[in-house]
Structures are given as structure tokens and as C-alpha cells.
Automatic annotation (TrEMBL), chain A:
The lineage of its organism: unclassified sequences, metagenomes, ecological metagenomes. InterPro entries: Aldolase_TIM, DeoC, DeoC/FbaB/LacD_aldolase. Pfam families: DeoC. One of its GO terms (cellular component) is cytoplasm. It comes from freshwater metagenome. GO terms for molecular function: deoxyribose-phosphate aldolase activity. Its EC number is 4.1.2.4. This is deoxyribose-phosphate aldolase. PANTHER family: DEOXYRIBOSE-PHOSPHATE ALDOLASE (PTHR10889).
Automatic annotation (TrEMBL), chain B:
Belongs to the aldehyde dehydrogenase family. GO terms for molecular function: oxidoreductase activity, acting on the aldehyde or oxo group of donors, NAD or NADP as acceptor. SUPFAM superfamilies: ALDH-like (SSF53720). Keywords: Oxidoreductase. Coiled coil: none annotated. This is Unannotated protein. InterPro entries: Ald_DH/histidinol_DH (IPR016161), Ald_DH_C (IPR016163), Ald_DH_N (IPR016162), Aldehyde_DH_dom (IPR015590). The lineage of its organism: unclassified sequences, metagenomes, ecological metagenomes. Residues 33-474 form the Aldehyde dehydrogenase domain.
Amino acid sequence: MSFYGIVDGSESSLKHFLAQLPGVDQVGAEARAAMLATRSIKTTSKRWAIDTAISMVDLTTLEGADTAGKVRALCSKAVRPDPTDPTVPSVGAICVYNDMVAIARTHLDSIGGQHVPVAAVSTAFPSGRASMEVKIQDTQDAIDAGAAEIDMVIDRGAFLSGQFGLVFDEIVKIREVCGDRAHLKVIFETGELVTYDNVRKASYLAMLAGADFIKTSTGKVAPAATPPVVLVMLEAVRDFYSMTNRRIGVKPAGGIRNTKDAIKQLVLVNETAGPEWLTPELFRIGASALLNDLLMQRMKIDDGYYASPNYVTID
Amino acid sequence: MTFEYAPAPESRSIVDIKAKYGHFIDGKFVTGKNHFPTINPATEEVLSQIALGGASDVDKAVAAAQKAYTKTWSKLSGKERGKYLYRIARILQERAREFAVLETLDNGKPIRETRDIDIPLVAAHFFYHAGWADKLDYAGLGKSPQPHGVAGQIIPWNFPLLMLAWKIAPALATGNTVVLKPAETTSLTALLFAQVCQEAELPDGVVNIVTGDGTTGSAIVNHPGIHKIAFTGSTEVGKRIARAIAGTEKKATLELGGKGANVVFDDAPIDEAVEGIVNGIFFNQGHVCCAGSRLILQEGIADEFIEKLKVRMAKIRIGDPLDKNTDLGAINSREQLLKIQELAGVGDLEGAQRWSPACTLSDKGFWFAPTIFTGVTQAHRIAREEIFGPVLSILTFRTPQEAIEKANNTPFGLSAGVWSEKGSRILWATQQLRAGVVWANTFNKFDSASPFGGYKESGWGREGGKHGLSAYLKEGK
């Protein structure tokens, strides 16, 4: 087997490839992310950024308390985030647990939301601690129920103990299960990988194994999608594109709660990977509370004042 | 899709620029003569008229400084001097935005830099030295080290207020009084600083500011009432000053030119190194004496590195310095622009390959696109002479020894950078590099506690930190 003609999938070829990647200087990466956070996005560019961010939101509910009713409500919100304003775009996707996929898909289709894909979290989310058989079955279930996007978690234990082949094989197997039916997003849980060097290695491991997207976090561990982590991942997809001519998407998730943070993410994309990545096909933001703040800021631009939070729907 | 950043200009309504300025002598603004215009280099708009200080203005300023030294400043305890410095530092912080906008207008550097770097460092420098004022017995200069008296200080246009702070804060903390001349193209923030001195109720004559050109500076240097000279500027002028004070009892510190080498090894953190190279040469339009104006790259990574550098340079935002999203502002003067253009032209003639990202430059004001030259060798003038603009010369090396030899093969020795993830290599390289400041895996980082200064023709003495104090003190018993 050959993956992009770069590695053959063996433990030794992966170790060799990952070892030759340049290191990430922590201070430098954080300084660059902090500098980009000072960009001042105003007026017309702010309006554009808000609509773009809305179209990139993976509207998420991942709770033990999720019910069919809660998921249906979220689906309605996903299709028409602001029921009073049809110019607001639909979000990028709905992101739910496996057993909610069919409910979400059916409801979306019934309310004119055929264009909104359902993403399922998979492979024993969030811990990734299950046998391979279970992980495959988990993924298969979600796809059969109508998931068009699979957000899988990597085995962080295997990664941290240096078993890169194991992590790689799992991604390859899930990629096979997804086939042409579902996009694959690979979640690293960067809060558990801790170092930027690890984030860079995990990014290449996932991209070489066939990921369509690389994603920071489950949302269950802090810190999650910090700007320097996203910066390192954007550098990885940019450089992977120049190696392979294939663009991989990036999805920060967790901790992006307001418009300011979301716009900072878009600036990171624009000035790191480049404007080609400023599309829901290549950049998503995993969030739940963020959408309402985007809607409030959008109203503020149009009306000139901040409306009461009661003017945006709670779900 | 394209993400255009709408203009985000900082308001200039916060600054109040007078039509005409005089000098600041003995605590008062006095009228001057022979005014010349100071302009906004981004637009060539005339901002104000600045007085050209003559011998009589310098005489008055030195006399006021001498009187203040004898009658008040030398009689105050260190603790009392410290109080004034703390007060100045706090006022600078309170008026930070005003200073940032004024500096950007007069100098042409981006507001992002004046706001986030220049002015915060200025306040920090006063705070730092305020702390030293009552602790000079512990500066390693013996018990009760004594000030020299009147310090004559001449500063450049690249960091107008920051260089003022580097000069005035240690002078005042150590008990000296000051006659300072700002650069002729950038006097406005120094004159606003004079207002801060009044607001802080600094005793009259402790700080005197005489504006003007080289002739004014020369009058300060040659004035018999000056006990110590502190100069930041070109090596050429530095040498003239050294000749002028030879044989006198005047002490001097000189911060002069540089041709800093940024050495990138093949095991460097590449993305951050690219960022550091960009910061090293394009920060402040390359108007930085310690700029990393030579990139010395290990041959094995050169092509890949230069490619990444070009991608990054294409993201540099050039334009209105008052726009909060501008990365590269205007060249400070027509004279400097001509010098940069001339030396870049020499690079072309010498056979180096010039590259700049596509960018539109305003036809008003003074602008120069960020530029790199590849295929540069030690024998090229652009590898040897200080360009003092956004122009980077790229050389390559094969072995670590060769990198160090090339880095040190210069009459200058102000700064250098080393980029490697290997600790032992960094320690080895930093010991070999003959430069006053060596940064590892970063560049252009400044701190009041860290001494700054040059080897060889980059200057005499150090500024900042404990080392910087000794330039303003005679050793005690």
C-alpha cells in the first residue's frame, strides 16, 4: 500500500516521516497567533465574516441528556438560524451522537433542510476506548442511518505511547467504512496531546491516512481549539496541499463561543492556509453557543443596536 | 472567496498638533527660529513646523540643565527621583494612545507597532529605571556612584519616543540632567514628552529638548558644558562624534549601525523561523539598527525555506500606517527612500535576484515593497552595507562553522539570530557570534532589564539593564 506515495503505512515508515517534520517553536507559534488576533475586522468585512462563520458552524449537541425533541429543535435552527430573516444562511452541518442521526436526518428532510448534512461522532466518542470491531460497527451504524460526515476520535493512548501505526490503521479502516458515502473528520483531542509538535504529527498522520478534515477536539476536554493549535493545523493542511495537491479541511471545536473568537479563526485561516480554505467545504467550527452570538452581532450591524437576547431563539 | 479587511483606521482626533513648535528649555516652551516642516511620510502632508536649534539655543539648554543639576536634581535622594520617573511612566501609559497615533503620523510606522510595541516599551523603560533610582548602591558600581552631570543625547528617527526613553530614563534615574535632540524628521513625540515632564512637575531644566538637524547635534556634542554624550544613529556620525570628543573628558555611549545575521539551521522550527525572519527585517520597515538584514540559510533547506518565506511575505499588509491592520508602513523620509532604492539597485547590478510580493504602493508618500535578494554572497555590497529598509539579503552555508564565519564577517556586531531546535547547537552558536545581542528562536525582542549594544563598529557601551546604568555613573568608593 502507498499513501500519497509518501508512506507505506508501516510503523517504521510513519515514524520516519513524522520524525523528519520540523518542530514547532511554542513561543513563536503563540506569538504569531496572538498577532493575528489583533486584526481589526469592521463594517462590511465583519458582515461578510459573520455570514461565512454561520455557514461554517457544525451546530452541535453531544450530551447524555439529548432527546429526539432537542435534536429536532436544533435541526430547525440549523436550517433557518434566524426565523425572521431568510437571508441568514443555514449552518454547515448538524453534529449529534450516533443514535440521533436518523432522527436528525428525517426531520431535516421534512423541513426543507436536505442541504444540511448530519455529522455523527464515532469510534467510541469521546474517549476512543473500544475495540476496533466496535469502532467500525459504530461508524457503519451512523452511515446507514444517514450520516454524511463522520467525526471520529483517534486513540490518544496509542498516539502518546508512540504507536503511530495503530492510530494510522484505525483511521485507514474507518476511512474504508466511510468510502464515498461519508466525509471523514479526524478528532485529535489536542488538549490531551498537549504539545504543538504532537498536533503537527497527528495532523500529518490523519491526512496521510485519508482524513477529509482534521479536527481539534471533542468539546469534552479543555483546552480545546486554541488559536495556536488551529494555526499549527492550518500550516499542516497548507503544506500537505503543496505536497499532494489535495486540500484537507480543518475544524476547530470547543471554546469558540462568540463572534470575536470566530472571526479570529477566520483571520487565522485567511492568513495561514489562505482564502481557498474560507468555505464550509474546508473549514468548519464545532460549536453550540456560538451561533446565537453570531446572530446577535448580525442584527446589531443591521439595526445599529444590540437587541435583547430574547430576539434570538434558544435552540 | 476573499476576505477583504475593511479599512480600520485609528482616529487621529486624539492628537493636537500645533502649527509651529519651539524648544523646551528650563521647563518652558520657548520660541525657536529657522523653522522647517515635519511631514507625515505616508502622505507628505505637512504636520507642523519645527525649530532649527542653533548654538545659542543649545547654550541656554545646557545652562538650564547645569543649573538644574547643581541646584535641584543632584540634591534629591534616589527615592525622590524615582517618584518623578514613576509619575512620568504612569502619564505615558495614560496617554499611550495619543503618543501611538502621533508617532505613527510623524514616523510612518504602523499603529499596530506603536500601540503594541513602542509605547508599552517606553512606559516599561521608565518604570524599570524608576525602580533603580534608589538602589544605585547595589548596581555593582561601588558605594554611592555619582552622576556625570549634564548628558547630551542625540536620537534617531526610527524609534523616536523609545530611543528618547532609552536615553532619558537612565540619565534621570542616575541623577544626571539632560539636553536631548530628537531627529529632525521625528520631533513631535519628543515635544509631547516635554508636556509630560511639565504634567509630572519635573523640576525645571532637568529635561531640555532642542530640536534641529546635524548642526544642532554638533553644537551639543562640542559644547563644553556637556559631560556625557549618548548617541544612537549611523556609524558614520558615530565616528564623527568619537573624533570630536577625543581628548576631552566627555564620556560617551554610541549605538550605531548593524547588519544582523539570522542563521537558520536545517533543524530549525521552520514556520516560526519564517515568521522570525519576517519580523527581523520587516518590523518597522526595516528601520531597525539590529534588524536581521542577512538571512544565512543552511543550503539543504534553502529552496523550501525561501518558498515559504515568499508565501508569508505575500500576506504582509502594506498601506495606511494608521490602519490597525497594516503590517508595513511608510519609509520615514524621501532621503531614506532614495538610499534604499540606490542600494537595492546595487543588488541588481551585482547579480543578486530581487523578489517582492505583488503589492500596490501609494504614489503619495514614501514607500518601498518588502524585498528579498537571493543569490547574495559575502562579496556583495548588499551583504555588507546597512540598507536600513525592508530589504533582506539571503546567503547560504554548508557547515555550522561556515555559518558563523559568514555571520561574523562584517564590520558591525549589533545583533544576530540563531534558529535550531537543538539546544547544544544554539549554545555553541551564540558563543561564537560576535554580536551584542543574540536571539535564539526569536528576534527583535526587547526588555528594559536586558542590556543592548554593539561589538566592533556597532558602538560603545550598553543601554538598558544594570549594564546601562554604568554609562551614566562614575564608580563610587
